[in-house]
Task: structure prediction
Amino acid sequence: MIELKYKDITEKILSSSFEVHKFLGNGFQEVIYQRALTFEMRQRGLNFAREIEQDIFYKDLPEPIGTRRADFVVEEKVLVEIKAIIQLDDVHLAQALNYLKAYKLEVGLLINFGSKSLTYKRLVL
Result:
């Protein structure tokens, strides 16, 4: 059986997410889910930073060409990007994978609170 990297962390994040979705359902703005998820992850003893700004570099340019903020970086190991949309599309997956690269992290979760049932994708670089 394959052991998933950072399984203990991702399980706590996902259980937090399911609890938020069970209580709130779908139909709220992303920021509402972010705030509720902050509460639930704290309840589970997870350390995280919310909306950390990360420089985006291009090739050998010394200056960043822009910045981006991921929703959460948990335990300095797992990137969490949340959405509140009807369904996840390839563009959302590509965005989350780009964030993983920019933040130099290996594992991420793309979580969607906008559908009737919570949906998520586990991402590994």
